[in-house]
Amino acid sequence: MLTIDDLDVAGRRVLVRADFNVPLEDSGDGTRVITDDGRIRAALPTIESLRSRGARVVLVAHLGRPKGEPKPELSLVPIAARLSELLGVPVSFATDVTGTSAAAVVAGLGDGGVALLENVRFDSRETSKDPGERGALAAELASFADLFVSDGFGVVHREQASVTDVARLLPHAAGRLVLAEVEVFRKVLTDPERPYAVVLGGSKVSDKLGVIENLLGSVDRLLIGGGMCFTFLAAMGHEVGSSLLEVDQIETVKGLIASASAKRVELVLPIDVVVAQAFSADALHKIVASDCIEPGWMGLDIGPNTRALFASRLADARTVVWNGPMGVFEMPPYAEGTRAIAVAITEVDGLTVVGGGDSAAAVRLLGIDESGFTHISTGGGASLEFLEGRTLPGIAVLED
Length: 400
Ligand code: ADP
Ligand code: MG
Prior knowledge:
By secondary structure, this protein is α/β, with parallel strands linked by helices. It has a six-stranded parallel sheet, with helices on both faces. Strands 11-10-9-15-16-17 form a six-stranded parallel sheet, sandwiched between helices. Strand 12 and strand 13 form a beta hairpin. Helix 1 packs across helix 2 and helix 10 packs parallel to helix 11. The protein contains 14 helices and 17 strands. Bound molecules: adenosine-5'-diphosphate and magnesium ion. It catalyses: (2R)-3-phosphoglycerate + ATP = (2R)-3-phospho-glyceroyl phosphate + ADP. Its EC number is 2.7.2.3. This is phosphoglycerate kinase.
């Protein structure tokens, strides 16, 4: 896989696929404000390196799911403004993806200049299942550039025009972010220092079961909290009340529990949980043993004994991967589990990786020192597919 350092970029047009899919909020007066610019910041090393070497940088990115047509609320205008502030230089904005505005903006770029095209998913061909349609959009994008750089780690698990098809049409390389992400996940996957512990939580239970399957072949300890743990507790025969439960996954989970024991993986489940009478910050809540959840109560966080147990199973680990919050951290009464585990991971002496969009958001929301982790991934889905051992099309294409 070539990197941007291998490319001779001076005076050349470089199309960069970035991931600017950031959370936005309405400010009340109709304007959209970025609530977490982490993904924009993560793209800066690549853009700055290309600019400083005299490249003409053309950025292509998406925001949300506009379903193939322009939606004003998903315009990249606020991204261009923020990017310009962070770079300290003007960013020319094209009001279309590959139309007359894009062509004019690209033609107007000088050496070291930066342009951003409008949300690429405003064009339905971007995510089309038809390779011919995707190829046509990719060809239009490729006509704006001499080189392609892939730096949107959050989309490398997708077969999409601006991710894979365009890489087949232009000389290409991995950007700094993609390279850093791939290096960390390859290390974890192929050569983790031991003990190697993985902490899983969050709410996307069925999405994450495939990952567990693959992880059981390599991890020493698997700690499960968040909404995920209730399907495990149910599989062990415990009552889980109104907690998040994927009934149709119980049999699969029973298989995973048996497989963990056969492979001598230490499976650590909550021993106590914070239960509430409703999914609300001001609902009545209390701490109960994890095998004593009563009907009508829902588990919204791991309990204090579990926080201590999990921390003790992380303390001497040399590799830790964490994906998925331990509780509903967005509501203060259920944030302590996530806080405790995040802090415990920052104290680990070894390689520590945070994957998952909500886990990274929790780190920032709870004010935990980001420098305490080796790596905070920008790609939730992509990092999970990596850990599942799958080939990511957007990475494979860079290796050709
Ligand atoms: P990530 O983006 O880090 O992969 P997920 O998207 O799987 O994580 O899940 C994040 C969500 O899980 C958060 O919004 C959090 O509120 C929710 N969550 C965590 N624990 C529970 C729980 N016990 N019950 C319901 N939702 C939970
Ligand atoms: Mg999420």
